[in-house]
Input
Amino acid sequence: MWLRNLFLLTVLTANVHALPDINSWTTSKGMKVLHVEASELPMVDIAVTLDAGSVRDGQHHGLARLTHSLLNKGAGELDADAIASRFEDVGAQFSASADLDRSSIVLRSLSDQALFSKALQLYIKVLAEPSFPAKDFERQRKLMLVGLEDKQQTPAAIVSDAFFKALYEQHPFAHSADGEIDTINALKLVHVERFHAQHFVAANAVLAIVGNVTQQQARAIAQQINDALPKGQAQKPIATVTPSQQQQLQIDFPSQQAHVRIGQTGIQRGHPDYYSLYVGNHVLGGGGFTSRLVQEVRSKRGLSYSVYSYFLPYAQPGPFMLGLQTRADQVDQAIAVCRAEINKFIQAGPSEDELALSKQSIINGFPLRIDSNRDILGYLSVIAYYDLPLTYLHDFREHIAGVTLADIKSAFSALIKPESLVTVVVGRGAQD
Amino acid sequence: MNINILSTIMLLVSFLFSPILHAQVHEKMLANGLKVIVKQDHRAPVATAQVWYKVGSANEYGGITGVSHVLEHMMFKGTPKYPLGQFSQILAAAGARDNAFTSRDYTAYFQLLAASELETSFRLESDRMAALTLDEGEFLKEIEVVKEERRLRTDDNPNALTYEQFNATAFNSSAYHNPVIGWMNDLDNMNVADLKVWYESYYSPANATLVVVGDVQADDVFALAERYYGVIPKRDVISTKPRLEPAQKGSRRVEVKAIATLPYLMLGYKVPTLRTATDKTEAYALNILAGILDGGRSARLSKHLVREQEIAASAGAGYSLYSQHESLFMFEATPNTGSTVDQLEQALEVEIKKLQTELVSAEELARVKAQVVANEVYQLDSVQRQAYMIGSLESVGLGWQTMQTYAANVQSVTAEQVRAAAQKYLIDDTKTVALLTPVDS
Output
């Protein structure tokens, strides 16, 4: 059992390394702030995360994404050209994007005081005072329609959208942040303005700051963002997710490969079984070349270039999903292999050796998760947004080390129902 | 020039002299010809180890296209010492992220792992440099995986399919004619003997560079490299033919009909790269030219084609400064609803004409340079990115020193040089155009 012996040794040595020191406070208007000082490089990363993802679209599917794409198209007296030039004149990078249950507005800048203060002022203006010019609204709306046409030629996008729709039906998780032709056509400028007024408020935001700024400087940055935003209200929690029902969908598409998704509703952030499911899934389909799915589908049978499974936890239960692509005439075989692996895993769980290897892999690989400012920014945003403990990173390896075979078996059998899995296939189908 | 921007650019230029952009790079040549390069970065207790072989699709010829990439896949299939599965298993236990990639000019293998695990990487990577098994049965399965990869990336992707034809049209006979993943028919007819020849020809210490960036001491890395890689016997490096493209005499057009919903346009002009240019300033001027057109949202293609004229849903330009062989200055665009690829092509021609007749403004030039300097700092946030720069520059024969003078060389480019580059190289006689025409089935 060389694996397990190694395991003990590495747990002891791995803990020696320092973790980022997280400063945390809440601004006067209720915005939670997490900050890590990293002074090695003369740069700063800032991310405001909002509860303004596509779950907040209401009937206006695509609204969150459209609103975020318009932030840098006009703010105060500045138009899109002026905003773009001013960021780029100081070498700063700006991005805004709406995901499913959160959105992020991100700035990367050099930390030199003169450059950074210009970038920050502009960032705050774009965040808090976008002007939503009618011309830009109309153009971005049309570009979203072109984006939808692009998705129609992309089987990977079609399978993903269909899978979420099958899993979540009437729930706000069901629709894509890209919206649909009808809903995009129906969007009005006033929807965007209202969406911004309602969601871009301090009580609905968390802030992460990483880089060459002291805590004192970070507090001043947070204060400025706080002052620029109205206090507003946090969004009410979204509707509870009901467990998905068995479905089998075949969507015809003239591609050489069929794209497959198999899965069901999974877990939310902070779920008590999170670590057991995470480690278990590492064995099943999350651990790359050593995972069972890659072994069985790719290495032993050559059926797919990529095959994986993962849990995607949101504030509400996100999906558990397995994905692959294979030549159309092999799709039934590939699905059968995957289903057999899932069934076997639910019944028997991983072996002792597999469990040891996955734990070792996750624990020894921990430093890679936080080896850059960008990585740390990502963790701070997640910790703040989903209200995870500030000790999340500190405790991570301990949680992984504590997972047992029994934990994995009970967590998987309690959650994953092989007979109720949703299967979506996009392609010509096996009969062709 | 606006005083405000001028003072900003002065500030940014001062970063060029910052010690962090000139961190020492250590190098050592082992007796067997393997070059070892180390850059210390102590921000986090991690390191990346990368082995770069100077072989890629540019070395391939008709009938065996894709062989470099298939060999990359087979490198994970075991050696006598670490049979099938062991390599991935041991690296997984070490918590490493491990992968490989193949391009036109090189094939590279990397691990990102805790710095204390560097020896694990060296032990395994040096072993497969010298003693790959190349089992027939494993090959027969893996070639099917590669074909699935081709279907995924190219055959079912209309824009990628267009690029493949565009590229094969622009480069008639030279090294870059073939797609990296290979033509399907060549994959169908590949055998394990093709791979053995390739492995024996190109996977030798003297044809490789070992790059380590991270929380390490250079001397320790050299000692470790000596121990694991130093024992591999020296072999002569196979000589490659130059395979230069005959001069293009007149524009070329190709149409690709594919199952798609959106048309797509590609335009390319033959240009020298930093390595092939006789006058190196031309290469840096072309690099700036790409920035003027597509260096951010303020750049001309976004500003004019997407926002002002609203004829493009997306439009981009690019130049690969560090390609080994003569390359292309590229444009690509997707029309907006209600516009055609013809209109897009005309609009691109207008932009090109403007660059040939008018000097770019001092503001635009300063802005592109500002972004270059800032990006030099930002890329230090990733050890992988730093190692990538070193490995790729070494593999194409430019040397890692190029990255340390890059920003300064870009700063010295003038508006006149940008215009001269546009006049000299963005000309019809060396142009290739590819159009994607969508069809239903």
Notes: Chain B is about 45% helix and 20% strand. Residues 131 and 377 of chain B are 40 Å apart (CA to CA).
